[in-house]
Amino acid sequence: KDPYKILGVDSKASAADIKKAYFALARKFHPDTNKDKSAQEKFVEIQEAYDTLKDEKKRAAYDQFGSASQQPGFDPNMFSQGGGGFGGFGGFHDFAQAFGAQAGARGGGSLFEELFSSFGGAGAGRRANMRGEDLTSSITISFLESCKGTRRNVSVQPIVDCASCSGSGLKAGMKKTTCSACSGTGQRTFVIDSGFQMATTCNVCKGAGSTIPRNGECNSCGGVGKVRIKKTVVVDIPRGVEDGMTVRVPGAGDSPISGKGPTGDLLVRIKVAPSKVFTRQGVNLYHEAKVPMHVALLGGKVRIPTLEGDVDVRVPSCTQQGEEMVLKGRGVAPTFTGETGSLFVKFSVQLPRSLTQRQRELIQLYADDIEGR
Protein backbone atom coordinates (compact mmCIF):
# COMPACT_ATOMS: atom_id res chain seq x y z
CA LYS A 1 0.00 0.00 0.00
CA ASP A 2 1.08 3.57 -0.67
CA PRO A 3 2.33 5.09 2.61
CA TYR A 4 1.83 8.60 1.25
CA LYS A 5 -1.88 7.94 0.62
CA ILE A 6 -2.27 6.30 4.01
CA LEU A 7 -0.88 9.40 5.77
CA GLY A 8 -2.60 11.75 3.33
CA VAL A 9 0.57 13.58 2.29
CA ASP A 10 2.22 14.39 -1.02
CA SER A 11 5.23 12.35 -2.21
CA LYS A 12 7.32 15.52 -1.94
CA ALA A 13 6.19 16.27 1.63
CA SER A 14 8.84 17.27 4.13
CA ALA A 15 9.76 15.13 7.15
CA ALA A 16 7.99 17.64 9.40
CA ASP A 17 4.75 17.45 7.38
CA ILE A 18 4.87 13.63 7.45
CA LYS A 19 5.37 13.63 11.23
CA LYS A 20 2.50 16.08 11.72
CA ALA A 21 0.14 13.98 9.61
CA TYR A 22 1.15 10.82 11.44
CA PHE A 23 0.45 12.19 14.92
CA ALA A 24 -2.93 13.53 13.82
CA LEU A 25 -4.00 10.16 12.40
CA ALA A 26 -2.48 8.20 15.30
CA ARG A 27 -4.57 10.18 17.81
CA LYS A 28 -7.68 9.65 15.68
CA PHE A 29 -7.34 5.90 15.24
CA HIS A 30 -5.53 4.85 18.42
CA PRO A 31 -7.37 1.82 19.87
CA ASP A 32 -7.47 3.44 23.32
CA THR A 33 -9.55 6.35 22.05
CA ASN A 34 -11.30 4.86 19.03
CA LYS A 35 -13.49 1.86 19.81
CA ASP A 36 -14.34 1.13 16.16
CA LYS A 37 -13.43 -2.47 15.24
CA SER A 38 -11.44 -1.31 12.21
CA ALA A 39 -9.49 1.34 14.17
CA GLN A 40 -6.76 -1.02 15.34
CA GLU A 41 -6.17 -2.31 11.80
CA LYS A 42 -6.08 1.27 10.52
CA PHE A 43 -3.71 2.28 13.32
CA VAL A 44 -1.28 -0.52 12.39
CA GLU A 45 -1.46 0.59 8.76
CA ILE A 46 -0.66 4.18 9.79
CA GLN A 47 2.24 3.02 11.94
CA GLU A 48 3.74 0.95 9.11
CA ALA A 49 3.40 3.85 6.67
CA TYR A 50 5.16 6.19 9.08
CA ASP A 51 7.91 3.64 9.72
CA THR A 52 8.60 3.66 5.99
CA LEU A 53 8.55 7.41 5.45
CA LYS A 54 10.39 8.55 8.58
CA ASP A 55 13.46 6.53 7.61
CA GLU A 56 15.39 8.24 4.78
CA LYS A 57 16.69 4.98 3.31
CA LYS A 58 13.33 3.21 3.44
CA ARG A 59 11.61 6.24 1.93
CA ALA A 60 14.17 6.47 -0.87
CA ALA A 61 13.75 2.74 -1.54
CA TYR A 62 9.97 3.12 -1.74
CA ASP A 63 10.28 6.13 -4.04
CA GLN A 64 12.52 4.09 -6.34
CA PHE A 65 11.04 0.59 -6.18
CA GLY A 66 7.48 1.07 -4.89
CA SER A 67 5.84 -1.59 -2.77
CA ALA A 68 8.54 -4.12 -3.67
CA SER A 69 10.76 -2.34 -1.15
CA GLN A 70 8.32 -3.28 1.65
CA GLN A 71 8.44 -6.99 0.97
CA PRO A 72 10.44 -9.26 3.31
CA GLY A 73 14.02 -9.86 2.19
CA PHE A 74 14.12 -6.87 -0.19
CA ASP A 75 17.66 -5.54 -0.66
CA PRO A 76 17.96 -2.28 -2.66
CA ASN A 77 21.66 -2.98 -3.24
CA MET A 78 20.66 -5.81 -5.59
CA PHE A 79 19.25 -3.17 -7.95
CA SER A 80 21.82 -0.40 -7.47
CA GLN A 81 24.03 -1.23 -10.46
CA GLY A 82 21.54 0.08 -12.97
CA GLY A 83 22.23 3.65 -11.90
CA GLY A 84 18.66 4.85 -11.28
CA GLY A 85 15.01 4.15 -10.54
CA PHE A 86 12.19 3.24 -12.82
CA GLY A 87 11.12 6.79 -13.51
CA GLY A 88 12.53 8.88 -16.36
CA PHE A 89 13.13 6.10 -18.90
CA GLY A 90 11.72 6.54 -22.38
CA GLY A 91 10.37 2.99 -22.61
CA PHE A 92 11.35 -0.64 -22.31
CA HIS A 93 14.45 -0.27 -24.52
CA ASP A 94 15.84 2.60 -22.43
CA PHE A 95 15.16 0.64 -19.27
CA ALA A 96 17.08 -2.37 -20.57
CA GLN A 97 19.92 -0.20 -21.85
CA ALA A 98 20.33 1.55 -18.51
CA PHE A 99 20.55 -1.71 -16.58
CA GLY A 100 22.89 -3.34 -19.11
CA ALA A 101 25.60 -0.68 -19.11
CA GLN A 102 28.11 -2.75 -17.21
CA ALA A 103 27.60 -6.07 -18.99
CA GLY A 104 31.19 -6.39 -20.17
CA ALA A 105 32.60 -6.10 -16.67
CA ARG A 106 30.29 -8.84 -15.39
CA GLY A 107 31.40 -11.63 -17.67
CA GLY A 108 28.77 -11.17 -20.39
CA GLY A 109 25.61 -10.86 -18.24
CA SER A 110 23.80 -7.64 -17.34
CA LEU A 111 21.77 -6.62 -14.35
CA PHE A 112 18.79 -6.22 -16.67
CA GLU A 113 19.08 -9.87 -17.67
CA GLU A 114 19.21 -10.87 -14.00
CA LEU A 115 16.15 -8.80 -13.12
CA PHE A 116 14.03 -10.26 -15.90
CA SER A 117 15.51 -13.74 -16.17
CA SER A 118 12.27 -15.16 -14.76
CA PHE A 119 10.65 -14.65 -18.16
CA GLY A 120 13.06 -17.23 -19.58
CA GLY A 121 12.13 -19.72 -16.90
CA ALA A 122 15.55 -20.02 -15.26
CA GLY A 123 17.28 -18.37 -12.32
CA ALA A 124 20.01 -15.87 -13.05
CA GLY A 125 22.62 -17.94 -11.26
CA ARG A 126 21.78 -20.91 -13.47
CA ARG A 127 21.42 -18.95 -16.70
CA ALA A 128 25.09 -19.08 -17.60
CA ASN A 129 28.43 -19.58 -15.96
CA MET A 130 30.26 -16.32 -15.57
CA ARG A 131 33.73 -15.83 -16.99
CA GLY A 132 36.63 -15.18 -14.66
CA GLU A 133 38.23 -11.74 -14.52
CA ASP A 134 41.30 -10.86 -16.58
CA LEU A 135 44.55 -10.12 -14.80
CA THR A 136 46.91 -7.38 -15.95
CA SER A 137 50.67 -6.96 -15.70
CA SER A 138 53.45 -5.09 -17.47
CA ILE A 139 57.05 -5.85 -18.36
CA THR A 140 59.92 -3.94 -19.93
CA ILE A 141 61.96 -5.52 -22.70
CA SER A 142 64.96 -4.31 -24.68
CA PHE A 143 64.66 -2.81 -28.15
CA LEU A 144 66.36 -5.86 -29.66
CA GLU A 145 63.96 -8.23 -27.84
CA SER A 146 61.00 -6.29 -29.22
CA CYS A 147 62.30 -6.78 -32.75
CA LYS A 148 63.29 -10.43 -32.52
CA GLY A 149 60.87 -11.75 -29.88
CA THR A 150 61.60 -13.15 -26.45
CA ARG A 151 60.17 -15.13 -23.53
CA ARG A 152 59.63 -13.79 -20.02
CA ASN A 153 58.36 -15.08 -16.70
CA VAL A 154 55.57 -13.03 -15.14
CA SER A 155 54.49 -13.41 -11.50
CA VAL A 156 50.73 -13.28 -10.94
CA GLN A 157 48.24 -14.09 -8.18
CA PRO A 158 45.15 -15.58 -9.83
CA ILE A 159 42.00 -16.86 -8.15
CA VAL A 160 41.76 -20.65 -8.49
CA ASP A 161 39.64 -23.48 -7.12
CA CYS A 162 40.56 -24.35 -3.55
CA ALA A 163 42.70 -27.49 -3.62
CA SER A 164 41.43 -28.68 -0.22
CA CYS A 165 37.76 -28.85 -1.22
CA SER A 166 38.09 -28.94 -5.03
CA GLY A 167 36.13 -25.71 -5.22
CA SER A 168 33.04 -26.94 -3.35
CA GLY A 169 33.66 -24.80 -0.24
CA LEU A 170 32.74 -27.77 1.96
CA LYS A 171 34.53 -29.71 4.62
CA ALA A 172 35.11 -33.36 3.83
CA GLY A 173 31.91 -35.37 4.26
CA MET A 174 29.59 -32.33 4.28
CA LYS A 175 26.86 -31.59 1.74
CA LYS A 176 25.16 -28.36 0.67
CA THR A 177 21.54 -27.72 1.63
CA THR A 178 18.74 -26.10 -0.38
CA CYS A 179 18.73 -22.32 0.04
CA SER A 180 15.81 -21.36 2.29
CA ALA A 181 15.66 -17.80 0.93
CA CYS A 182 14.87 -18.81 -2.67
CA SER A 183 13.77 -22.44 -2.13
CA GLY A 184 16.54 -23.63 -4.41
CA THR A 185 15.54 -21.58 -7.46
CA GLY A 186 18.57 -19.29 -7.34
CA GLN A 187 16.38 -16.21 -7.71
CA ARG A 188 14.04 -14.04 -5.69
CA THR A 189 10.96 -12.31 -7.04
CA PHE A 190 9.44 -9.00 -5.94
CA VAL A 191 6.14 -7.52 -7.02
CA ILE A 192 5.89 -3.89 -8.18
CA ASP A 193 2.75 -1.81 -7.55
CA SER A 194 1.36 -2.52 -11.02
CA GLY A 195 1.62 -6.25 -10.40
CA PHE A 196 4.74 -6.51 -12.53
CA GLN A 197 7.18 -9.14 -11.22
CA MET A 198 10.86 -8.36 -10.85
CA ALA A 199 13.33 -11.22 -10.41
CA THR A 200 16.94 -10.97 -9.31
CA THR A 201 19.69 -13.33 -8.25
CA CYS A 202 19.24 -14.57 -4.72
CA ASN A 203 21.59 -12.57 -2.51
CA VAL A 204 21.90 -15.43 -0.01
CA CYS A 205 23.10 -18.26 -2.26
CA LYS A 206 24.31 -15.98 -5.12
CA GLY A 207 22.11 -17.86 -7.56
CA ALA A 208 23.43 -21.33 -6.74
CA GLY A 209 20.19 -22.53 -5.15
CA SER A 210 22.07 -24.15 -2.28
CA THR A 211 24.10 -23.05 0.71
CA ILE A 212 26.77 -24.48 2.96
CA PRO A 213 25.44 -25.60 6.36
CA ARG A 214 26.71 -23.93 9.52
CA ASN A 215 30.24 -25.08 10.46
CA GLY A 216 30.47 -26.95 7.16
CA GLU A 217 32.83 -24.47 5.52
CA CYS A 218 36.19 -25.61 4.22
CA ASN A 219 38.94 -24.43 6.58
CA SER A 220 41.25 -23.44 3.73
CA CYS A 221 38.90 -21.14 1.79
CA GLY A 222 36.25 -20.34 4.40
CA GLY A 223 33.49 -21.82 2.26
CA VAL A 224 34.18 -19.66 -0.78
CA GLY A 225 35.63 -22.53 -2.80
CA LYS A 226 38.27 -20.20 -4.23
CA VAL A 227 41.71 -19.04 -3.11
CA ARG A 228 44.31 -16.68 -4.52
CA ILE A 229 47.72 -18.21 -5.18
CA LYS A 230 51.11 -17.04 -6.41
CA LYS A 231 52.35 -18.52 -9.65
CA THR A 232 54.69 -17.81 -12.53
CA VAL A 233 53.39 -17.63 -16.09
CA VAL A 234 55.70 -17.99 -19.07
CA VAL A 235 54.84 -15.28 -21.61
CA ASP A 236 55.95 -15.66 -25.22
CA ILE A 237 56.45 -12.20 -26.68
CA PRO A 238 56.30 -12.33 -30.49
CA ARG A 239 58.75 -10.54 -32.73
CA GLY A 240 57.82 -7.10 -33.93
CA VAL A 241 55.94 -5.91 -30.84
CA GLU A 242 55.95 -2.19 -30.23
CA ASP A 243 55.87 -0.08 -27.08
CA GLY A 244 52.40 -0.06 -25.51
CA MET A 245 51.16 -3.26 -27.14
CA THR A 246 49.44 -5.92 -25.04
CA VAL A 247 50.12 -9.65 -25.18
CA ARG A 248 47.21 -11.89 -24.14
CA VAL A 249 47.85 -15.21 -22.40
CA PRO A 250 44.56 -17.17 -22.60
CA GLY A 251 43.37 -18.89 -19.43
CA ALA A 252 46.03 -17.38 -17.14
CA GLY A 253 43.62 -15.05 -15.32
CA ASP A 254 41.13 -15.57 -12.50
CA SER A 255 38.71 -18.44 -12.26
CA PRO A 256 35.08 -17.28 -11.95
CA ILE A 257 34.00 -16.59 -8.38
CA SER A 258 30.99 -18.84 -8.84
CA GLY A 259 30.08 -21.57 -11.28
CA LYS A 260 32.32 -23.43 -13.69
CA GLY A 261 32.69 -20.78 -16.36
CA PRO A 262 35.87 -20.14 -18.37
CA THR A 263 38.97 -18.69 -16.74
CA GLY A 264 39.97 -15.13 -17.54
CA ASP A 265 43.14 -14.18 -19.42
CA LEU A 266 46.40 -12.51 -18.46
CA LEU A 267 47.00 -9.23 -20.29
CA VAL A 268 50.65 -8.20 -20.36
CA ARG A 269 51.40 -4.64 -21.42
CA ILE A 270 54.76 -4.33 -23.17
CA LYS A 271 57.15 -1.45 -22.50
CA VAL A 272 60.07 -1.25 -24.92
CA ALA A 273 63.30 0.39 -23.77
CA PRO A 274 64.61 2.94 -26.30
CA SER A 275 67.58 2.00 -28.52
CA LYS A 276 70.79 4.02 -28.55
CA VAL A 277 71.43 3.37 -32.27
CA PHE A 278 68.02 2.87 -33.91
CA THR A 279 64.70 4.60 -34.22
CA ARG A 280 61.72 2.66 -35.47
CA GLN A 281 58.67 3.33 -37.59
CA GLY A 282 56.61 0.20 -38.09
CA VAL A 283 58.86 -2.49 -39.57
CA ASN A 284 61.53 -0.01 -40.73
CA LEU A 285 64.62 1.01 -38.77
CA TYR A 286 66.59 4.23 -39.03
CA HIS A 287 70.24 4.81 -38.15
CA GLU A 288 72.54 7.80 -38.49
CA ALA A 289 76.07 6.77 -39.52
CA LYS A 290 79.01 9.09 -38.91
CA VAL A 291 81.30 9.28 -41.94
CA PRO A 292 84.78 10.88 -41.77
CA MET A 293 85.28 13.69 -44.27
CA HIS A 294 87.92 11.87 -46.27
CA VAL A 295 85.69 8.76 -46.64
CA ALA A 296 82.81 10.95 -47.75
CA LEU A 297 85.10 12.57 -50.38
CA LEU A 298 87.09 9.57 -51.57
CA GLY A 299 84.67 6.74 -50.80
CA GLY A 300 85.32 3.83 -48.51
CA LYS A 301 83.65 1.68 -45.86
CA VAL A 302 81.88 2.41 -42.56
CA ARG A 303 80.62 -0.08 -39.97
CA ILE A 304 76.83 -0.10 -39.51
CA PRO A 305 74.91 -1.83 -36.69
CA THR A 306 72.03 -4.14 -37.63
CA LEU A 307 69.74 -6.45 -35.66
CA GLU A 308 72.03 -9.35 -36.62
CA GLY A 309 75.27 -7.57 -35.74
CA ASP A 310 77.59 -4.99 -37.32
CA VAL A 311 78.22 -4.99 -41.08
CA ASP A 312 80.50 -2.95 -43.34
CA VAL A 313 78.82 -0.90 -46.05
CA ARG A 314 80.54 0.90 -48.93
CA VAL A 315 80.22 4.67 -48.98
CA PRO A 316 80.31 6.14 -52.51
CA SER A 317 82.83 8.91 -53.20
CA CYS A 318 81.56 12.48 -52.83
CA THR A 319 78.76 11.39 -50.46
CA GLN A 320 76.85 14.45 -49.28
CA GLN A 321 75.66 15.30 -45.78
CA GLY A 322 72.26 13.72 -45.11
CA GLU A 323 72.27 11.29 -48.03
CA GLU A 324 70.68 7.92 -47.33
CA MET A 325 71.37 4.30 -48.12
CA VAL A 326 68.65 1.65 -47.86
CA LEU A 327 69.50 -1.87 -46.68
CA LYS A 328 66.48 -3.96 -47.65
CA GLY A 329 65.48 -6.81 -45.37
CA ARG A 330 67.55 -5.42 -42.49
CA GLY A 331 64.55 -4.00 -40.65
CA VAL A 332 62.01 -5.67 -38.34
CA ALA A 333 60.15 -8.83 -39.26
CA PRO A 334 56.37 -8.33 -38.99
CA THR A 335 54.53 -9.85 -36.06
CA PHE A 336 52.09 -11.69 -38.28
CA THR A 337 52.41 -11.53 -42.07
CA GLY A 338 54.13 -9.25 -44.53
CA GLU A 339 57.64 -8.37 -45.65
CA THR A 340 60.52 -7.61 -43.34
CA GLY A 341 61.27 -3.91 -43.18
CA SER A 342 64.40 -2.04 -44.29
CA LEU A 343 67.23 -0.28 -42.50
CA PHE A 344 67.58 3.33 -43.62
CA VAL A 345 71.11 4.64 -43.08
CA LYS A 346 71.54 8.40 -43.07
CA PHE A 347 75.13 9.62 -43.54
CA SER A 348 76.40 12.37 -41.30
CA VAL A 349 79.71 13.76 -42.61
CA GLN A 350 82.11 14.54 -39.77
CA LEU A 351 84.52 17.52 -40.25
CA PRO A 352 87.78 17.59 -38.30
CA ARG A 353 88.06 20.05 -35.44
CA SER A 354 91.79 20.61 -36.00
CA LEU A 355 94.35 20.13 -38.80
CA THR A 356 98.07 19.41 -38.87
CA GLN A 357 100.29 21.66 -40.95
CA ARG A 358 100.55 19.01 -43.68
CA GLN A 359 96.79 18.49 -43.75
CA ARG A 360 96.26 22.21 -44.07
CA GLU A 361 98.74 22.41 -46.96
CA LEU A 362 97.05 19.55 -48.80
CA ILE A 363 93.61 21.04 -48.39
CA GLN A 364 94.96 24.39 -49.54
CA LEU A 365 96.25 22.73 -52.70
CA TYR A 366 92.77 21.28 -53.21
CA ALA A 367 91.22 24.68 -52.73
CA ASP A 368 93.69 26.32 -55.13
CA ASP A 369 92.90 23.68 -57.71
CA ILE A 370 89.18 24.24 -57.38
CA GLU A 371 89.57 28.00 -57.66
CA GLY A 372 92.03 27.73 -60.58
CA ARG A 373 94.90 29.43 -58.89
From TrEMBL:
SUPFAM superfamilies referenced in this protein's UniProt entry, alphabetically: Chaperone J-domain, DnaJ/Hsp40 cysteine-rich domain, HSP40/DnaJ peptide-binding domain
ZnF (CR-type) intervals: 149-230
GO MF term list: ATP binding; heat shock protein binding; unfolded protein binding; zinc ion binding
CR-type domain boundaries: 149-230
GO CC aspect terms: cytoplasm
Keywords: Chaperone, Metal-binding, Repeat, Zinc, Zinc-finger
Coiled coil: none
Residue ranges of domain J in the record: 2-66
GO biological process: protein refolding; response to heat
Gene3D superfamilies, per the entry: DnaJ domain, Heat shock protein DnaJ, cysteine-rich domain, Urease metallochaperone UreE, N-terminal domain
Official protein name in the record: DnaJ homolog 1, mitochondrial
Annotated organism of origin: Schizophyllum commune (strain H4-8 / FGSC 9210) (Split gill fungus)
